Amino acid sequence: MVDVTPADAVPPAEVGEMELYHPHSWWTKYVFSQDAKVIAIQYSATATAIGLVALVLSWLMRLQLGFPGTFDFITPEAYYQFITMHGMIMVIYLLTALFLGGFGNYLIPLMVGARDMVFPYVNMLSYWVYLLAVLVLVSSFFAPGGPTGAGWTLYPPQAIMTGTPGGNDWGIILMLSSLILFIIGFTMGGLNYVVTVLQGRTRGMTLMRLPLTVWGIFTATVMALLAFPALFVACVMMLLDRLLGTSFFMPAIVEMGQQLQHSGGSPILFQHLFWFFGHPEVYIVALPAFGIVSDLISTHARKNIFGYRMMVWAIIAIGALSFVVWAHHMYVSGMHPYFGFFFATTTLIIAVPTAIKVYNWVLTLWRGDIHLSIPMLFALAFIVTFVNGGLTGLFLGNVVVDVPLSDTMFVVAHFHMVMGVAPILVIFGAIYHWYPKVTGRMLDETLGQFHFWVTFLGAYLIFFPMHYIGLIGVPRRYAELTDMTIMTESAHHLNSFISIIAFLVGFAQMVFLFNLIWSIRHGREAGGNPWRATTLEWQTPQTPPAHGNFGKELPIVYRWAYDYSVPGAKEDFIPQNVPGDFRPTREPA
Amino acid sequence: MAIALVLVLIVVGSVLFHFLSPWWWTPIASNWDYIDHTITISFWITGVVFSAVVLFMAYCVFRFRHREGNRAVYEPENKRLESWLTIVTAIGVTALLVPGLFVWSRFVNVPSDATEIEVVAQQWQWSYRLPGKDGKLGTSDTREVTAENPLGIAPKDPNGQDDVVVEAADLHLPVDKPVKMLLRSIDVLHDFYIPEFRAKMDMIPGSVTYFWFTPTRTGTFQVLCAELCGQGHPLMHGMVMVDTEQDYLAWLGQQQTFAQLSAPQQTGSANPLPGNTMASALDVAAKVETVEAR
Fold first, then answer.
1. Nearest one of A420, A306, A369 to A55, comparing CA atoms
2. Predicted confidence band at A256 (pLDDT cuts at 50, 70, 90)?
């Protein structure tokens, strides 16, 4: 580690300030805005709205699973449409969009000390293409035949055949088109995030002084830019198979006694393309959560994140490794069985950097000064659910253990715990944390406590027992669990219990939404830095930050993002833009 | 404060649930108890890690909660601790992986004395084909599928003539004899799955996949489809009976060969095949409709 004085780390300004486009009218200020903060709110609001649709769909599924045969309108066809749209919306249109489009847009420029994203106009376009993708997706609910019911993995051949809802109607076409639009929109935003982190940082903000939130979002974006193209080509090829009768993924098929015209295609090729995207996608959602939760824990425990450099390298290692583990989703797909040896090994190796992150979060709590604020509670809940879901990943990643568990409810429980519940708990924590910066007011504490406890305990009660239904051997994606010899009476009762808890947890989200809206006007005034945090977004002259983020002069960064409880300092935090002698003795250079 | 208590309760509750709940895997009926053992090892290792991490968190939250005048300790890194944790984790992961890969190599290497049996899936039923006296299955092709030849057996291949065809009915297997299941689909992806046997594998139209196992006890076992295959997916059940050698041979004696089935109307109205095909396919379709109409 080179020992440098703070002043050495602040290079002189090499380039002039960027010129911002200043809005001239209400429309260009609030609607067709080029301000990353407005775009972030647009992304977040759209993602939340479509996420609510997915929440309602999950209730409908749970109605069927918890109380089979009670609700006539939930036909198998409808059930498959619900699970498909629920999964796709949650993974792509909510989690990806909210973490990268929402948090990425809001936090990257503020945290790196930039006035805005590097390409504001393209950034604006990114949102509008995303909105179009969402509208196309929603339109499939109203199209003849309804949305596709192919499962969120959209495996051909069934995805484009008549036995699947939407297979030979509009459903699958609209789904594929919407994904293609999403990827186009994301690429515009993603390039922005990457270039802004690499080129838009203020003076003194070296890469190793970036808050982990930025590292998480940055790495996830680089991964998404590399992974989404695989999904893009898969979607285009399947559209061609469906519309023009090509045979990329379609071999010779007899459907209900009829020979189809296709021949020679490879269904398993689609799975490789899908999971080449799909596995990095898990980390595209997880890495921003890792980054954000690191900052939440550090700030609210008043302690520097433990092992910052290790955390950065773990993020990068996980990002890189996640590109060579995709076929662990395909152990029983019929691919060559020897692949199993390779992919099981890579998959279990990825557990090491992931475990390091967990240790470092927990060790940050050790000898901290833990404020049990709502963001901290959500961060703790994240660790519990993430560790739980991560550990069951060691079952499924270990190829032979996956054989009995694959395609059962165990898998459903696992991935909901690790990439559903855990990242969403971080999103909640992050919203309670940054809402004061976005609106200038605090979210209501009492409602927040209610929301936290119901969501955390409820989610655990839903997904922990669900593993055991899978352990019995009950397959996932079953619209009917009757007539199944392994499905005992008590397992049906457990399903009813899970459903009831799911409705309660859903209700708690309505309380959260109410809090979000009510507190805009009625929340307690927050001031500029209510959490006494070190990072640059809390040091803006105005709250909410004005267009251009900082005042006349951009802040200059003198230290890393984690100077909490520095010995000898008067306050228990020193913002990144404060010069001075309270330089930590062991700051990573 | 409540959160520290709740974290402890989560650990205690999860462990109690694990040991006390009635929901556990079905009694095994194949040689793959190796897989069950590997799962048990996984439960122990991960259970210890989960409890340790969450209890440590609970302790930290309790011990280092904010009180007036408290100040956190400033400790950016601790190389020794980080190295130790990395090494211990790597050992734990290896302890999981090594037995797993060892069992996987057994799973993918089929013993030479395994009998080949073919499973053919279509929306939404299971059919089977067993080699005849020559011990060989004839070649097949989806393009050959017709109402009279529902499994698409190549009519010109002499090896296929004596193949035993079990169309949309139950499969019988002799106990304690290893079998290699050759898996084929003529329409979409399916997955031949019997929970009690622990093994499963997708079937892909245009390819033949496989797994092997040895049934270890007699009984009746339900076949489930474990890969989403359209709206009839949850109704795509079948039955496999594991018989004693004697019962098995008795059942086998009643089955018809491909040659018998495709002989043009020799058996006249006694030949149930084409009608049967339609009947069973329609049966499932009707079942789907009933569910929909409900």
1. A420
2. confident
**Taking a contact as any Cβ pair under 8 Å apart, which residues of chain A between 294 and 333 contact chain B?**
301-304, 306-310, 332-333
Put simply, whether A569 touches B (Cβ < 8 Å) is no
Kindly state whether residues A58 and A140 are assigned to the same domain. yes
Torsion of CA A486, A490, A495, A496, to 10 degrees: 140
Q: Looking at the structure, tell me whether residues B218 and B137 fall in a common domain.
A: yes
| Closest-approach residue (CA) in chain A for B277 | A257
Do B285 and B150 have their domain in common?
yes
Beta strand extents in B32-137 (DSSP E only): 115-122, 125-130
In a domain? residue A26: no
Percent of chain A surpassing pLDDT 70: 95
The predicted model gives B114-137 an average pLDDT of 93
Interface of B with A in 205-244 (CB under 8 A): 205-207, 209, 211, 222, 224-235, 237
Same domain as A321, residue A386: yes
Q: Do A68 and A164 share a domain, yes or no? A: yes
What is the reported pLDDT for B282?
47
Tokens of A566: 């520095």
- Is residue A111 situated within a structural domain? yes
What pLDDT is recorded for position A1? Answer: 37
Per-residue pLDDT tens over the stretch A280-302? 999 999 999 999 999 999 999 99
B34 and B157: one domain? no
Torsional sign, CA B259, B265, B268, B273: positive
Q: Give tens-digit pLDDT for B69-101.
A: 889 999 888 899 999 999 999 999 999 899 999
Whether B51 has a pLDDT exceeding 50, the answer reads: yes
Q: What distance lies between CA A433 and its chain's CA centroid?
A: 17
d(CA A408, CA A80): 16
Q: Looking at the 3D structure of chain A, how many domains does it have?
A: 3
Provide mean pLDDT across the span B16-43.
Answer: 94
Of B1, B32, B227, the CB nearest to A407: B227
Can you tell me the mean pLDDT for A459-478? 96
Residues B187 and B50 in one domain: no
Taking CB atoms and an 8 Å limit, are A404 and B198 in contact across chains? yes
- Residue B37 CA to residue B114 CA, distance in Å, equals 23
User: How much is the pLDDT for A515?
Assistant: 97
Please check whether residues A406 and A511 belong to one and the same domain.
yes
Decide: A104 and A197 in contact? Cβ < 8 Å. no
Residue A467: give the domain boundaries: 266-526
CB atoms within 10 A of CB A98: 25
CB contact under 8 A, B76 and A306: yes
In terms of domains, do B218 and B259 share one? yes
Q: Tell whether B187 is within 8 A of chain A (Cβ).
A: yes
Does B14 map to a domain? Answer: yes
Residue B239, beta-bridge partner list? B222
Closest CA to A294 of A352, A224, A351, A359: A359
pLDDT digits (tens, 9 = 90+) for B156-167: 999 999 999 999
Q: Is the peptide bond before A157 cis (omega within 30 degrees of 0)?
A: yes
pLDDT of amino acid A142: 96
Residues B171 and B51 both lie in one domain:
no
Collapsing DSSP states into helix, strand and coil, what is residue B239? strand
Q: Are residues B85 and B193 in the same domain?
A: no
Residues A425 and A486 in one domain: yes
Q: Please check whether residues B144 and B203 belong to one and the same domain.
A: yes
Residues of B in contact with A377 (CB under 8 A): 3
Of residues A314, A399, A307, A408, the one with CA closest to residue A348 = A399
Q: Which domain holds residue B37?
A: 2-65+77-108
How far apart (Å, rounded) are the C-alpha atoms in residues A194 and A221?
Answer: 7
User: In whole numbers, what is the pLDDT of chain A averaged over residues?
Assistant: 93
The number of folded domains in chain B is: 2
Q: Which two tokens stand for residue A321?
A: 């490794």
Task: Say whether pLDDT at A82 is over 80.
Answer: yes
- The answer, for A450 touching chain B at a CB cutoff of 8 Å, is no
